[in-house]
Structure formats: structure tokens, C-alpha cells
Amino acid sequence: MNMNFGLQQIQTQKLVMTQELRQAISILQYSSLELAEYLHQQAHENPLIDIQSVDRLNRQQTETPSTEQGPKEIDWEEYLRYRASGEDNSYRFFDREPEEGHPVDRVTCRRRESMEHDLREQINLMTGLDPERRKIAGYLLGNLDERGYLDVSLEEVSAHLQVPVHQVEKALEIVQALEPAGIGARNLGECLTLQLKRAGETDPLLYDVIEHHLEDLAANKYQKIASALHVDTGRVQRVVDVIRSLNPKPGSFFYQEAPRFIIPDVTVEKVEGDYVVVVNEQSTPRLSINRYYENLLRQQAGHDDARQFIHQKLNSALWLIRSLEQRRVTLYRVTEAIMKVQRGFLEHGVSHLRPLTLRQIAEELDLHESTISRTTNNKYVQTPRGLYELKYFFTSGINRQDGSALSSESIKLMMKNVIEREDKRKPLSDQRIAEQLKQQGITISRRTVAKYREELNIPSSSRRKRLG
After folding, report:
1. Is 183:251 a contact under the CB 8 Å cutoff?
2. 48 with 317: CB under 8 angstroms?
3. What 3-state class would DSSP assign to 367?
4. What are 361-378's pLDDT values in tens digits?
């Protein structure tokens, strides 16, 4: 075998992912909030980038200096004393207001910090409570789980605090008298019972069902409950309705998430019978090149290393600005193409939503599917029909018997309407729903109906059944 070593020149083509290309791809898929954070980071790293929010620019243009009022007097000694404490209290120092009114108003109106903190505030407002019982009640509050249930037994509390069990029971009564009703319960049955007593319910059937038939109630075995209690099914249904209106996790009252505000990236408005797409630039900071460094670069004198550094940062800043413009144009084109296909949705709502895929938009705009996916990722559009994520308009579809197509969202809406009109005493099975949809020209399997029903969070027919 003849093996020779040598050098050869071969010309090949390949795609190289440069740093600038990676940056452009990342900017394309960022949401408005992520993009703003990224731009501030780039401005921190690149001295040639000047960044300014649109709101600040508007304020500078509209605000005029006031000549009627002089500068606000500031107590600098107190301000420096706050700064020396090591805490950033400048905002609270200049903007805080003294708390006025009854202490109960402050407890109920201010933002809740935690369940334990809020419940301790309620106990602190109680009068005539001896210190020992207050101490035990505070210990019980520290052992509540996220549901608001007591996570330890009374015997364990008694042994740990070295107090009699009957004193722990008295302290537990204090905890269970707090708001909301059900706090301090040791199990689900006690939680529901506390809420019924607080509401003044006196029907013994309610307490009987909670004590002996909770599992049957969860399984919708109403007939079994009626037979065991020797009552008619209509009365059992009324009892079940009352129990289901109670809160099984009263602690969730304190763990409500803060409202999440969504700023639309694009707005679609109807103007003179046509729909116009407008890219929202209010949430994106504006970038510009720092004039000092720009003038410094134009000067002939200076160190070569400094000029090379400034030139490199200038190219990086210009590429960032071009990437932002490319993102804006791409987002505009993609949204315009989507709304062109979904004009029926804009005119008539979800029932006229058409099936749409990424490939359809990519072929129309001569872009890659991955570009469409990045453009619509975490982007929201404000339409006359409400605020929607751009990916919402990409749905699968089913062909009707007349040849037209319906999106999965349209079918879900039709299913929901069918279920809302059903006889609750004889709810429709998934097979019956499929048959009714077939009568409307939609051929769909029972398994698909079950899948869509679960996505709509609609229970099965056995759980939707009512006795009267």
C-alpha cells in the first residue's frame, strides 16, 4: 500500500456563526422585557452606546422648568444619616407619607407580606389575651403549611412548650377564629366544618357528609350518599353545591401571585375598513452613539490602541442598532402576514380562526421556519379582539365535509358551546359530542374530543352530572 503525505488546497463553503450573527438571532427572539434588559447590559459594557427610554425622552420634551416654585427644601442631615446606615432609603425618604387612621385599616389595606405575618397582626390586635396563650398561638402560626393547615399535633406542641394540652387547645381556638375561615385546621374535614360554622350553617346533613362521605363526594357518588343517609338525591345535590363552594386551602388566600402585566409588541388597528400593523416601540429603549467618542475617533491625534478600541466598540454599537432595526422589520412582516390569513378572526372572532403553520408564513415571506418561530416567541399582539400571543394563531386544523378547514381553537369553542347546552342531568359523553360535531360537518374522533376537553379543563360526563 502506497501512503503519501502532502498538502492540498480545497475550496469549500460553510456557514460560520459569528458573534454578530448570534447576537442578531438572540435579539430576534427576545421579548420586550428581555430586550430592554439586554440593551442596558450592552450599554453598560460598551461606552459608545447611549441609551434612553422613550418615556424619558417624552418627559424631556413636554416638561418645562417651573419658575413659580423654588427648590424643595431637604433635610440633608437626616438624609445623610439614612445613607450612613447602609440602607438605600432615598426613595422612601423623599416619597413616604406618615401612616394615618386606625391600625386595622393599615393591616387590611397594605400588601400582604406572608401568611404568618398577617395572622400575627390579627392576634396583636386582640385585647384581653394573656401572654402565655399569645405565645402558644404564635408557635402554632409558625407551624402552618401553605394550605393553612396545622402541621403538628397538639401533643407535640404541648411537649415542646411544656404546657398542658388543654392550653394548646385553647390557643388553637384562637388561631381558628382568625381570618380567613378554615385557618388552623388539622385536616380537610375540619377546614370545611370551620367554614360552615363561621357562615352560620345549621343543616346537620352538611356536617354528616363532610364527616363520613368526603371520598364519595369527590368521586361524584351522589346516589351512594343519598342511600346511606336515607335522603333524596335532590337534597344531596344541594348539600354538595354548598360544600363545593368552600375553600379547601384557605392559606392560598395569602399566596396570590402579583398581577402580570403584558406589554404588546405589536398592535393591530382597524383604519377605514383595513387592518394596520404597528410595532410598539414605546417599551424599547432608544440607542445612539456617544458624541464624545465619535468626535474623538475623528481626530487624527491620539494613541493607536485607543483609536482601535473605540473603532471596535463603534462597529459593535452600529451592528446592535442594525440588529434592532432588522428585528422591528421582521416582526412587522410576520405579524402582517399572520393577520392577512386570520382576517376572519379579526372580523368575527375565534370561531373563524383558520389553521396556520410556520411553514406557510415562512414560504410567503421567503424566510426560514426557525426565523418565524423566533420572531413569534414570547411576542404578544393587541388586536380588536383582545391581547393574544402570536403563537396562538398557529393552530392545527380539521377539514370539514364541505372542503373548508377549521382550526383546533374553533373546534374547542364549538365543543364548549355543545357542553354548555347539554342536559346536566344527562351530560354528553365524548362519543356523543363527536356525533353532534359530525352533524355540523366536522369529522372528529372520540379520542380527539377527550383531548380537547382536557385542554379546556372540562371534567368528564360522570363529573359533570347533576342530580337535580
Report:
1. yes
2. yes
3. coil
4. 999 999 999 999 999 988
Phi/psi region, residue 160 (left: phi>0; alpha: psi -120 to 50; beta: rest), is alpha
- What pLDDT band is residue 337 in, cutting at 50, 70 and 90? very high
Dihedrals phi, psi of 420, to nearest 5 degrees:
-65, -30
CA distance 411 to 408: 5
Which domains are present in the chain? 106-254 (1.10.10.1330), 397-464 (1.10.10.60)
The grid cell for 143 is 407551624
- Highest mean pLDDT (candidates 46-55, 217-226, 249-258): 217-226
Let me know: does 299 contact 310? Beta carbons within 8 Å.
Answer: no
> Quick one: cell of 213?
362521605
CA 77 to chain centre: 44
Q: Is a pLDDT exceeding 90 seen at residue 251?
A: no
Retrieve residue 409's grid coordinates: 381553537
- Specify the residue for cell string 417651573: 66
Distance (Å, whole) CA 344 – CA 322: 35
The amino acid present at 2, given as its one-letter code, is N
For 7, the grid coordinates are: 498538502
pLDDT tens-digit series, residues 289-306: 888 877 777 775 556 777
- pLDDT score recorded for residue 258: 62
pLDDT of residue 315: 85
User: Which pLDDT value is given to residue 11?
Assistant: 80
Pairing relationship of beta strands 49-52 and 274-279 according to DSSP bridges: unpaired
Query: Quick check: 254 and 115 in contact, CB under 8 A?
Result: yes
Asked if 192 and 182 touch (Cβ cutoff 8 Å), the reply is yes
b/e burial code for range 11-42 (CB count within 10 A of at least 16 → b): eeeeeeeeeeeebbeebbbbbbeebbeebeeb
Helix or strand run (H / E) with residue 389: strand 386-389
Grid look-up 405575618 returns 117
With beta carbons less than 8 A apart as the criterion, state whether 387 and 381 touch: yes
Crossing angle between the packed helical segments 446-455 and 408-421, to the nearest 10 degrees: 90
- Total length of the chain: 468
